[in-house]
Design a protein that fits this description.
Elements lengths: L2 H14 L6 H8 L3 H14 L4 E4 L3 E4 L16 H16 L4 H5 L1 H14 L22 H13 L1 E8 L6 E14 L2 E8 L4 E6 L3 E10 L5 H8 L12 E7 L1 H7 L9 E4 L5 E7 L3 H8 L5 E5 L1 H16 L4
Antiparallel strand pairs: 1-2, 3-4, 3-7, 4-5, 5-6, 8-10, 8-11, 9-10
Length: 322
């Protein structure tokens, strides 16, 4: 344990102690010599102005009248916390198409400075943390910030939205409820003031976003979850059915450990295959995910969903018959 971590650990021990802590205990917990314990106590008291009281015989603690209010100046993190911060720093800098990393660039600089101070200038092996964004979409940074600001400040939002399915462009006024990160992309869950219903909007399809002065309508959290999280994937609405999918014994080794839906039901079949049941509303996303497994997945029921999968496979096969 280096001195940085010892000081942090010493502070936490003294801050939580109800009675004086002996030097012997501090020596064991800090994994250092008796002389080092005294040097660290002196630095904590004289250098960082901590309210350390006590002596070598009775032990040390923080002054009961001041210890509860005292905190170490600046930002102090142990190695585990710094490692987590390093991973977060890499996630910010390498994901989100620049939206998050640009918005948080000042914070990222402070993180890098903190990491450098902790290692006395020795560079951290950033290349050991690998982040690979998958199928992220280009997004307007101004729109993203405006949407997030409206969600957090609880103000209504006006924007133009181009639906991906029809390419139709409409003007929307909504009461934003939540900003959702799903499969490396961002979505806005909102109450549509004109349609008087809950809707989800892909942020990368939003343009001309403008925060309004009017306060946003708050929808009950339970109602949001029932409408927006009741069915499979990002598509909203109450479930219209439950899909039963059977995966091959080979695919079962992956699917059995995957989370598809909060209300999914799965079981291993006697022959090694895996049966998965998930509620769904709009079938598009579920069909895409099932077809991703190719011949290792079969939709058993309902028959309507099975027929849609058969049609998609027939159309796909036609592309290879020319």
């Amino acid at each position: 344990m280096d001195r940085y971590e010892r000081i942090l650990s010493l502070h936490r021990i003294l801050k939580s102690a109800r009675y004086p802590v002996t030097v012997a205990r501090l020596r064991d917990e800090l994994e250092c010599s008796r002389a080092t314990v005294y040097r660290d106590l002196a630095f904590l008291r004289d250098g960082l102005m901590a309210p350390v009281v006590g002596d070598g015989e009775a032990g040390f603690r923080y002054d009961p009248d001041e210890g509860g209010r005292f905190e170490l100046p600046g930002l102090w993190l142990n190695s585990d916390e710094l490692y987590a911060l390093l991973a977060a720093q890499q996630l910010l800098s390498r994901s989100g198409g620049g939206v998050l990393s640009t918005a948080l660039a000042p914070l990222q600089g402070r993180i890098e400075k903190l990491l450098s101070e902790h290692t006395a200038g020795k560079p951290w092996p950033m290349e050991r943390v690998r982040v690979i964004p998958h199928r992220t979409r280009r997004m307007d940074e101004h729109a993203f910030r405006t949407v997030c600001s409206a969600v957090l400040s609880r103000r209504q939002l006006s924007f133009e939205y181009r639906a991906r399915s029809t390419d139709e462009k409409t003007r929307r006024k909504v009461s934003p409820q939540r900003i959702t990160h799903y499969r490396d992309n961002w979505y806005l869950d909102a109450w549509d003031e004109e349609k008087e219903a809950l809707r989800s909007f892909s942020v990368d399809r939003i343009s001309g976003a403008r925060q309004l002065d009017a306060a946003a309508r708050d929808v009950d959290e339970a109602q949001l979850d029932q409408h927006l999280a009741g069915s499979y994937g990002i598509f909203s609405g109450p479930p219209k059915g439950v899909a039963t999918i059977v995966f091959s014994a080979k695919a079962a080794r992956w699917v059995a450990d995957e989370h598809w839906h909060s209300q999914q039901q799965g079981r291993h079949l006697p022959d090694g295959r895996y049966e998965l049941k998930v509620p769904y509303s709009a079938p598009r996303e579920l069909l895409m995910d099932v077809l991703h497994y190719g011949s290792d997945a079969e939709i058993v029921e309902p028959e309507s969903l099975r027929a849609q999968a058969r049609t998609l496979l027939t159309l796909a096969l036609a592309n290879y018959e020319r």
